[in-house]
Amino acid sequence: MSAAFSNFEEFRALLDAAPSADESALKGAQDRNGQLTKPPGALGRLEELAIWYAGWRGDARPKIENPQVIIFAGNHGVTAQGVSAFPPEVTEQMVLNFQHGGAAINQLSNAAGAKLSVHALELDLPTADFTQGPAMSEQEAVDALLTGWNAVDAETDLLVVGEMGIGNTTSGAAILNALYGGEAEDWVGRGTGVDDAGLATKARVVRAGLAANPDRAGLEVLRGVGGRELAAMAGAIAKARVARIPVILDGFICTAAAATLADENQTALDHAVAGHVSAENAHFNALKNLGKEPLLAMDMRLGEGSGGALAINILKSAVACHSGMATFAEAGVSDG
Ligand SMILES: O=C(O)c1ccc[n+]([C@@H]2O[C@H](COP(=O)([O-])O)[C@@H](O)[C@H]2O)c1
Ligand SMILES: Cc1cc2nc[nH]c2cc1C
């Protein structure tokens, strides 16, 4: 099988050619929503969610039967600068934990009825320290984008992407600072739990990373200060966009990866909703820049797809109401 793309330009072209939501399914879902046995608007945001889902699936009365959660794991050279409360070995140790079913995401995926896939990306080859130059070459970033692209199952009807990577909140902060401006301090947070000195180190590292990587275009930012697991998340989100598979974004790092796509093409995230707002300092602001209102605010800051997986339950409930409820005519209920 030949690769779907072999450089950034070809990847961009695929994003630019991606189809929009199906207008007739959207219209059909809106009509159906207006006939269901409830006062107009009484299901609040569940109604707009179900209609949005119907449009992307091309079905006015859809079902969610095959949700997939994918975790991508990567290691970061920038951990040498002391940016995390945990050592880099934890990335690989947690991958084993995911594979043995012992992590939070295993339980949350099960509870949501989702299949969980885990992809470790060259854990023994951390990205380069981005304070010294780009974290990845274009080829390395393309390989990671392809891993993500190819990880999405064809029969998936709802996708959550998550990550595991000690040091990656510093990458996320650097990406968002590069794309949206402001000061490094606006974008760094405590991640796995650094103290005030650690927070100051993260701001210094982000500043140095932006100085060493001056290009501000989405994919260049992704390779400059991102990481393999972030590029893989971007690849999976892009594949879902092309295949019209709705996506639930997870936390801070996932949002930063997604933001690089939106910078390349402003419709790149039209098929995505924000699953939650994480407790990581700048996540809310990142979502605001993307125009995404989070479904949940649970003070979670775990990553590994956890907030997105939890939000699958919301989307399933929205679609179950939309597709399962009786209309006023069917139920013999008088409408207003
Ligand atoms: O998703 C989030 O919002 C989030 C917020 C804080 C930490 N994390 C997770 O913690 C790890 C990165 O934290 P750190 O301190 O090593 O940069 C990484 O494995 C993420 O999955 C994730
Ligand atoms: C234990 C642990 C679990 C995680 N899951 C996602 N990021 C993580 C970071 C740590 C440190």
Automatic annotation (TrEMBL):
It catalyses: 5,6-dimethylbenzimidazole + nicotinate beta-D-ribonucleotide = alpha-ribazole 5'-phosphate + nicotinate + H(+). Keywords: Cobalamin biosynthesis, Glycosyltransferase, Transferase. GO terms for molecular function: nicotinate-nucleotide-dimethylbenzimidazole phosphoribosyltransferase activity. It comes from the Bacteria. One of its GO terms (biological process) is cobalamin biosynthetic process. The keyword Mitochondrion does not apply. The keyword Transferase applies. The active site is at 304 (proton acceptor). Its EC number is 2.4.2.21. Gene3D superfamilies: 1.10.1610.10, 3.40.50.10210. Pathway: Nucleoside biosynthesis; alpha-ribazole biosynthesis; alpha-ribazole from 5,6-dimethylbenzimidazole: step 1/2. Belongs to the CobT family. Catalyzes the synthesis of alpha-ribazole-5'-phosphate from nicotinate mononucleotide (NAMN) and 5,6-dimethylbenzimidazole (DMB). This is Nicotinate-nucleotide--dimethylbenzimidazole phosphoribosyltransferase. It comes from Cognatishimia activa.
